[in-house]
Amino acid sequence: LIELSRKLCDYSKAISIFSRLKRSGIIPDLVAYNSMINVFGKAKLFQEARSLISEMRTAGVLPDTVSYSTLLTMYVENQKFREALSVFSEMRDVKCLLDLTTCNIMIDVYGQLDMAKEADKLFWGMRKIGIEPNVVSYNTLLRVYGDAELFGEAIHLFRLMQRKDIEQNVVTYNTMIMIYGKTLEHEKANNLIQEMHRRGIEPNAITYSTIISIWGKVGKLDRAAMLFQKLRSSGIDIDQILYQT
């Protein structure tokens, strides 16, 4: 019933059922606790969600990777990166197993907190603990490198993805185009768009708005205007991002 109420987004009902369950002397199981961490998070009852970890231990129910990753997701979705860092620290202290989702979340968290070195260390240590990074892992670290202005590391990682035939998608290319924009290497940024077309990766509004912005910064206003007009005449959906650019 708790899980059903959660799926129906009826959080008050889920909380009521959970409270009645405990009052009746029934100890919730791991699934029920994990569902309630999610429920409290969706209801923005962050302290209640966090306190369930301690309550679980007291009740003899050992929090697992899902328990912690649910908490991490809750904090990240609400921009509470310091709190997420605290949860991850506890997770490591109690030697809870990490998984791909947890690592990807924490690479992002480290980036948000300007802790690029820690993001880098976590990423490159994933395989040592038996976790294979996926395209989200790579894309997130690319963004972290770009935000930290570690452009050499970003280019190295992108080339590594290509050499090892690791999946690249529109997010990968948009991130790299943005990085070349920061270094004002507009031709390299434009070459990536051509490469996207050759590889069958469809550029989106972010791709085009980024290259238009780059051309504006380097004084290539004619190219920016031509591309904008071309997009309008070709029937490509030009959203608010492009108009603002």
Automatic annotation (TrEMBL):
It comes from the Eukaryota. PPR repeats lie at residues 29-63, 64-98, 99-133, 134-168, 169-203, 204-238. The keyword Repeat applies. Gene3D superfamilies: Tetratricopeptide repeat domain (1.25.40.10). InterPro entries: PPR_rpt, TPR-like_helical_dom_sf. It holds the Pfam family PPR_2. Keywords: Repeat. Belongs to the PPR family. P subfamily. NCBIfam families: PPR. PANTHER family: PENTATRICOPEPTIDE REPEAT-CONTAINING PROTEIN GUN1, CHLOROPLASTIC, PPR_LONG DOMAIN-CONTAINING PROTEIN. This is Pentatricopeptide repeat-containing protein. It comes from Buddleja alternifolia. The gene is PPR123.
